[in-house]
Design a protein that fits this description.
By secondary structure, this protein is an alpha/beta fold. The protein contains 19 helices and 12 strands. 61% of the residues lie in helices and 10% in strands. The relative contact order is 0.08. InterPro entries: AAA+_ATPase, ABC1_TM_dom, ABC1_TM_sf, ABC_CydC/D, ABC_transporter-like_ATP-bd, ABC_transporter-like_CS, P-loop_NTPase, Type_1_exporter.
């Protein structure tokens, strides 16, 4: 219910349209009841040959009520749908604002297909909250109670019958179907998530599936998932149709009961026969919207489940981070010191610690290499320094400020970052370099390309989506050029030259270290060549720091780093 309360809060921001929708719906409902009641009374009255003026008045009343009903129904649809579209817009904006700070770590918690299903499908499902859950019961109850009060003037027992019908169709029958529908809706959403995930997996892995001749197997899994989803949808529709049928049957049964009771009262002289047709027509009309209550539990469970799935993505445990207004600024053009004290971290849904009891000190302006075997936690340590993940235990300090006091965007603003996987946007070389700053000139961008030996490219050369037309080495060099153009005082480099040949790597590092000579630099690398001049080398294994010191100190210790260096010598 907490998640649904968030949706309700966003919905109530559109108070005016909500109010107009309810009022227009009430007028349309009352006008419909009045229209049919006047029609029934007109038919009975006409049979008694009343004066012409009486028939003219009754006929005009019927026409007026017909026009009123049509106009009010149009107004109801207009205001309710305008409110719904605005509510969905507010919901998307609110959700994106919560989601944005969690990226890219969010992709480690959810598969992309499932995440897409939540962001698109569940948000779309929430459009039914206002249209099918919130205001229809309010309008129906207002119309029914007003009609029952009117009917009391003619027959108290008829009014009681209408009240019983209201309770049955509005509360009891929907409540009976709620439990069953909750289970069905849950299965439908789970199957939809599985289908989206399987479809995304097939499209992303199409090339590899073709190469390994497993495309048919994956297609079969997708077909099975699709059939399962369709079956659950069929079950949902059958249950919905049955619920509507029960509500319609009860509405008609109450109408027959009103007819029988009215006929009895007319026969015994307790009711003027001229009102019988009117009461029957009222009974038929007042339950006109009973079908909306039949699907009420379906949409209620659907929206609750959608809200839970959607906001479970962005709900996090409370942290000790400062409020946005209390964040402290890091100086952009000043080298910053970095410290980690007793830091531990575990990825969500994993039992193994990725980092355990990490304590390191990187003085301002120092050059540090973090080395170790694959899976030792090097990249994870760098991600924690960049606030891509919050540490489970321990403290991280940047520039003598706790990371909890620093806005993530502010930290990234003073940093030049090259990760193992860097995204390239569809466009040109110029477009992708301009991520480092809109004020960059063509000469500055061309100089950066020259420094990373990409001067054979022009700024107008195309870049396909995800850089598909670039080689692995070209992608890395373009990412390094982008970082060089940024001009931050902290450098975070994660295997920046793993796909680059040794000669090109040497040239790039020369330009890079020349530019970063006064900056704080952290380099993650599995290669041990070229790190002799680093101020500090941190050696990691299985999420722990096992050695640290200068190149000379570590070689003299003849420990783990020495063994790695000797093995690399033998290999190359």
């Amino acid at each position: 219910m907490k998640d649904l309360a968030i949706v309700t809060k966003l919905m109530l921001a559109e108070k005016r349209d909500i109010f107009y929708s309810i009022i227009a719906g009430f007028i349309a409902g009352i006008a419909a009841v009045g229209l049919f009641a006047a029609s029934g009374y007109l038919i009975s009255k006409a049979a008694l040959a009343p004066p012409l003026y009486a028939l003219i008045i009754l006929t005009s009343t019927v026409k007026l009520l017909g026009f009123t009903r049509a106009l009010a129904r149009y107004a109801e649809r207009y205001f309710s749908h305008r409110a719904t579209f605005t509510i969905l817009s507010n919901l998307r904006v609110s959700f994106f604002e919560k989601l944005e700070p969690l990226t890219p770590g969010i992709f480690q918690k959810y598969r992309s297909g499932d995440l897409l299903s939540r962001i698109v499908g569940d948000v779309e499902s929430l459009q039914n909250f206002f249209l099918r859950v919130f205001y229809p019961p309010i309008v129906l109850i207002m119309v029914c109670l007003s009609t029952i009060l009117f009917t009391l003037y003619f027959s108290i027992y008829t009014a009681i019958l209408l009240l019983i019908g209201l309770v049955l169709t509005t509360f009891i029958v929907p409540a009976l179907f709620t439990v069953k529908q909750r289970k069905i809706n849950s299965r439908v959403r789970e199957e939809r998530g599985k289908l989206s995930t399987e479809a995304a997996e097939l499209l992303y892995g199409f090339r590899d599936l073709k190469i390994y001749q497993k495309l048919a197997d994956k297609e079969q899994e997708l077909i099975v998932s699709s059939k399962s989803y369709i079956n659950e949808q069929e079950t949902e529709e059958i249950n919905t149709a049955f619920s509507k049928s029960v509500n319609t049957f009860l509405s008609l049964f109450i109408t027959w009961a009103v007819l029988g009771l009215g006929a009895y009262y007319v026969a015994t002289g307790r009711l003027d026969g001229i009102f019988l047709a009117m009461l029957v027509m009222i009974a038929i009309t007042v339950f006109e919207d009973a079908s909306s209550m039949a699907v009420f539990p379906i949409y209620l469970n659907d929206t609750k489940r959608a809200a839970n799935r959607l906001f479970s993505v962005v709900h996090e445990d409370e942290t000790t981070e400062a409020e946005p207004g209390n964040w402290k600024e890091l100086p952009k053009n000043k080298a910053l010191s970095i410290e980690m004290e007793s830091v531990s971290f575990t990825f969500p849904n994993e039992w193994r610690k990725a980092l355990e009891d990490i304590t390191i000190q990187l003085p301002a302006g120092s050059k540090t290499a973090i080395v170790g075997p694959s899976g030792s936690g090097k990249s994870t340590l760098l991600q924690l320094l960049l606030k891509m993940h919050p540490a489970d235990e321990g403290d991280i300090w940047v520039g003598n400020l706790s990371s909890a006091e620093i806005c993530q965007e502010n930290l990234w603003n003073v940093s030049n970052v090259v990760l193992q996987e860097n995204h390239f946007f569809y466009g040109t070389i110029r477009d992708n370099l301009r991520l480092a700053g809109d004020e960059l000139t063509a000469d500055e961008m061309e100089a950066a390309l020259l420094n990373v030996q990409l001067d054979h490219f022009s700024l107008e050369d195309p870049v396909f989506e995800k850089g598909e037309n670039l080689s692995g080495g070209e992608k890395q060099r373009l990412a390094i050029a982008r970082a060089m153009l940024k001009g931050g005082s902290c450098w975070f480099l994660d295997e920046p030259t793993s796909s680059i040949d040794a000669l090109t790597e040497q040239s790039i590092y020369k330009h890079l270290f020349e530019q970063a000579k006064d900056d704080t630099l952290v380099l993650v690398s599995h290669r041990l060549t070229g790190i002799e001049k680093m101020d500090q080398i941190i050696v990691m294994d299985q999420g722990r720091v096992i050695e640290s010191g200068t190149f000379t100190e570590l070689m003299q210790q003849k420990g783990y780093f020495y063994e790695m260096k000797e093995i690399e010598k033998d290999l190359f």
